[in-house]
Design goal:
Number of helices: 11
Strand order of the largest sheet: 3-2-1-4-5-7-6
Largest sheet: 7 strands, mixed
Radius of gyration: 19 Å
Helix content: 25-40%
Shape: globular
Structural class: alpha/beta
Order of helices and strands: HEHEHHHHHEHEHHEHEE
Strand content: 5-15%
Number of strands: 7
Distance between the termini: 15 Å
Length: 274
């Protein structure tokens, strides 16, 4: 793990991010480990909090992975590009409407949009177009140079991969720490779990993920999985230790419609002490 103290917050707010339950996750982590693997990186709250000495992180979102690569390799260029963007409603929709071809510009655009969008949401339509309205956060500066440089330093020790979770952890071995945070929704009742989640992460992928987690556990890795609190999911990880995490839902636009939801953290503490 990194030697310096303090927790670095994520660069981006991402759907399914684990900022709310981060301290609970950190309390379960081993005190030392070899390589850190996170195949569903998203906002990377746990990764940036741990700041491992070496990591293999991945996601299947090409824009997200490109953003991290540019911040890691060209932080000053990203800062320069982002500094040219103004925080106004007119500018927001103009920037949202165009998709730059240059990788640095694409990275700056993603940071800008996720910083200033309504509720910090990242969402695209069926054509892959970012469609979240402006959040009217006039006080927010879209460019934070110290933050971008700090994120770049942490990413400098990480291999970044765009691809499937199974291939991303192929080389994980004894003493490595693997954290899986697949996409799932807890916004719908149990009766709708399979239906709604099939749209974002298929049941076949859930089955494949569970088997990969079991294989890694048998290989001697520390394995942690965040997932929905549902009987079908619990059954997949019946040989793992389980804790329930209750948090407030942030899906609804109005606080009046938000409710408490329960998620599960599974880990192989029974077969390997943390």
């Amino acid at each position: 793990m990194a030697a310096d103290d303090g927790v670095l917050s994520p660069l981006l707010k991402w759907p399914g991010g684990k900022r709310v339950i981060l301290q609970r996750l950190l309390s379960l982590m081993p005190t030392s480990f070899n390589t850190y693997y996170e195949p569903f990186l998203g906002g990377g709250a746990l990764f940036f909090a741990l700041r491992p000495n070496y990591a293999v992180v991945a996601d299947n979102n090409t824009d997200l992975v490109n953003c991290y690569i540019q911040v890691r390799n060209r932080p000053e260029e990203v800062i320069m590009s982002l500094s040219a963007y103004r925080n106004t409603c007119e500018d927001y929709y103009a920037i949202r409407a165009r998709v730059p071809l240059h990788d640095v510009e694409r990275a700056a655009r993603l940071i800008y949009l996720t910083t200033l969008s309504f509720n910090g949401i990242h969402r695209v339509n069926l054509r892959g177009e970012f469609n979240v309205p402006y959040g009217y956060k006039y006080h927010v500066k879209p460019c934070d140079p110290p933050k971008i440089r700090a994120v770049s330093r942490v990413l400098s020790s990480a291999a970044l991969i765009c691809g499937d979770f199974e291939s991303a952890v192929r080389d994980a071995d004894t003493g490595d720490l693997v954290y899986f945070d697949p996409p799932y929704t807890v916004a719908h009742g149990n009766n709708g779990f399979i239906k709604y989640n099939a749209e974002i992460f298929s049941w076949a992928d859930q089955l494949r993920l569970a088997q990969v987690a079991i294989d890694l556990s048998q290989r001697g890795c520390y394995v942690f999985v965040s997932n929905a609190d549902h009987e079908s999911i619990r059954d997949l990880y019946r040989d793992f230790a389980t804790i329930d995490v209750v948090r407030n839902s942030v899906v609804a636009a109005s606080k009046a419609y938000r409710r408490k939801v329960t998620e599960c953290i599974f880990w192989n503490a029974r077969s390997r002490a943390c």
